[in-house]
Amino acid sequence: MNTVLLTGFEPFGGERVNPSWEVVKQFHERRIDDATVIACRLPCVYGRSVQVLNGLIDRHRPALVLAVGQAGGRAGLSVERVSINIDDARIADNLGQQPIDVPIVADGPAAYFATVPVKAMVQAMRDAGIPAEVSQSAGTYVCNHVMYGLLHCLAQLGYGARGGFIHTPYLPQQAAALPNAPSMAADTIAAGLDIAIRTALQTEHDLNISGGALS
């Protein structure tokens, strides 16, 4: 039986909710195609988040791993193309850690590219009327830390699992306290994630279409 591991984060930065977990938890034990989804919440903590994720991968041996996180200020679902081997925190994590210019994996590759069909996932969401984009940067906070750790783990295990990361906008209730901040309803985020998972499971080769950016 195929397993999809889907993760979200606990709230951080003074927020009371994190849209990634609010939506991801709805998928727990859901069947998508021939796979069963396992949903888990990660701590917004450098180091510990990847330790928890690695343990989940070792336990469930998923065919697909999608980590989901919040990117306040973005207007659509962002499928990340690349993660870089650096922690450079603008704010402290939930344990007060604030690493600056610290490698995630000592002597690890400078970067890892997502192994899911990034452009196909974005196109499928757009075709369904859901705002989505290819993102060229997962940042340097815990989201990038987890994406890099995820792809490093899968590369080391080498059993063919695919991995990627999706950022969500704020939920409307978060944006209400932030003038002019874009948001997306939880139901829309959930619909986008469902499409992204199905596309990742069904698509062997990514689309050869433009997903670049000018900056």
TrEMBL record:
SUPFAM superfamilies: Pyrrolidone carboxyl peptidase (pyroglutamate aminopeptidase)
One GO CC term on file: cytosol
E.C. numbers: 3.4.19.3
Summary of subunit composition and partner proteins: Homotetramer.
Any single GO BP term: proteolysis
Protein name from the UniProt record: Pyrrolidone-carboxylate peptidase
Cell compartments where the protein resides: Cytoplasm
Pfam families, per database record: Peptidase_C15
